[in-house]
Amino acid sequence: MDTSRFATAAGRSIGNAVQRNRAKRILRETVRPKIPSIASGWDIVLLARKPISTADYQDIEVALNNLLSQANLLENSQ
Fold it and tell me: Strand pairing partners for 5?
């Protein structure tokens, strides 16, 4: 497999359907620019948690960077 695949999910604890869809959209848009720098061949599921409803884009981006770095999935973070 030459690319990594991503899935987003948000449970009812996030809120109503509008809030869940917004959380998933934000997660997708946060990961989209990072796809070229992520190691290939992985299936990654991003699960939205309650604090996402009050977080801004920069907070989510920092959290995603931290998670990908901890998992050693960023190719440029040596």
Answer: 43
Residue the block writes with tokens 């998933």: 24
DSSP string, 35-60: GGGBPSS-EEEEEE-GGGGT--HHHH
Tally of CB atoms within 10 A around 20: 20
Q: Taking Cα atoms as reference points, which of 51, 58, 43 lies closest to residue 10?
A: 51
Cα–Cα distance list, 67 to 12, 14, 17, 19, 22 (Å): 23, 20, 26, 23, 21
The pLDDT > 90 percentage for the chain reads 87
